[in-house]
Design brief:
This protein is an all-alpha fold. Helix content is 71%, strand content 0%. It contains twelve helices and no strands. The chain starts with a helix and ends with a helix.
């Protein structure tokens, strides 16, 4: 009888969902692809790069591009882009619902990204060049900046924009709904374009960028699963930019690493931590730690440089309202055109 009661009252063991398992396997694969890139580094073509001419110059590209270097880079990018866009379109057309498991579109997306990652690795070793040969460096960096700004807009209704405030701003919420519905197409473009922009080099900056790129591809591949909207997983992706931006700046020895470190962490203090359900004492703990770190760094760096802290947040928060305005204007124009066409269709 005691055994029976124990069996009845015993709680069932929680099992990891299929999408959660896919997440962990995807993280492992992201680091494995990066490790493979590093391991194959000695076999990269030996190239005498042109001298670096400044901030708007991309160093890692062929001095004399060939027809095949361009054709393989652009065809690989376009195929990758169209395949992933097609998968997103298929998922939306079939009104795919969120689940803790995996859909066919998730499997297709995992496979597609994995295949194109290997193709780009092969293309780098044979023809080397990426899209950087024909496009400006800011097109790659800017695409990711807009992606991060779009996340702030998209998440406003859940966590607010400034210290948990702004959740009831209809202007941001209405445009945020548009971003939530269609963000997959833009995010896929931003990350796939950035991926093919660079050759798969083995500098520390490139390898860090590859890990970040692969993790965002993984997030896209987890579309319409519960893990795709898990607040801790989505926060982790937003926070990786702190590590990436800071380490790249340190490696470049340009002396501006605090701008990236404190700038991106300011977004966490002002916005991101307010969507985690933290207690007040926990929030204050993060604020005090942030302030203490800033005091330590800028007491030796010079208080005149303290304005570095606000540069990235100011750009991002202004960017949220600019992006929202552009989307709102698009909504108004779209509504006007639809209203004008409707009477004509009725006739």
């Amino acid at each position: 009888m005691a055994t029976l009661n124990t069996a009845v009252t015993q709680k069932p063991k929680k099992t990891m969902s299929a999408s959660a398992k896919a997440l962990w396997w995807g993280i492992f694969a992201s680091f494995a692809f990066t490790a493979l890139t590093w391991a194959l580094g000695p076999f990269l073509p030996q190239i005498n790069f042109l001298p670096d001419t400044g901030y708007d110059w991309y160093y890692w590209k062929l001095p004399e591009p060939t027809v095949m270097s361009r054709v393989t880079a652009w065809s690989g990018y376009l195929l990758h882009q169209l395949v992933v866009w097609g998968i997103i379109y298929y998922a939306q057309k079939n009104k795919t619902k969120y689940t803790s498991g995996l859909h066919r579109v998730n499997i297709l997306s995992f496979a597609a990204n994995g295949i194109f990652i290997l193709l780009h690795l092969l293309q780098t070793h044979i023809w080397y060049d990426g899209l950087a040969q024909d496009t400006h460096i800011m097109s790659s960096q800017g695409s990711v900046v807009v992606l991060l700004i779009a996340v702030l807009l998209m998440e406003n209704q859940r966590r607010g924009l400034i210290f948990g405030k702004g959740k009831r701003l209809n202007f941001l919420n209405d445009t945020g709904r548009v971003v939530r519905k269609y963000h997959g197409y833009y995010f896929a473009w931003a990350i796939i374009y950035t991926f093919w922009y660079h050759p798969m080099e083995t500098t520390s900056g490139h390898l860090l960028g590859l890990v970040y790129t692969f993790l965002i591809m993984l997030q896209g591949s987890l579309m319409y699963t519960r893990i795709h909207v898990n607040k801790w997983w989505t926060l982790a992706q937003e926070m990786i930019v702190v590590v990436h931006g800071t380490l790249v700046a340190i490696n470049q020895n340009n002396g501006i690493w605090p701008m990236f470190f404190f700038g991106f962490l300011a977004l966490f203090i002002v916005t991101q931590m307010h969507g985690l359900g933290l207690k007040q004492w926990q929030k204050w703990g993060f604020v005090i730690a942030y302030a203490a770190a800033a005091i330590i760094v800028y007491s030796s760096r010079g208080w005149g440089m303290l304005n570095e802290i606000v540069r990235i947040p100011v750009i991002d928060y202004l960017g949220v309202f600019v992006l929202a305005l552009l989307i709102w204007l698009g909504m108004r124009v779209g509504g006007f055109v639809t209203a004008r066409l409707r009477p004509a269709q009725a006739r």
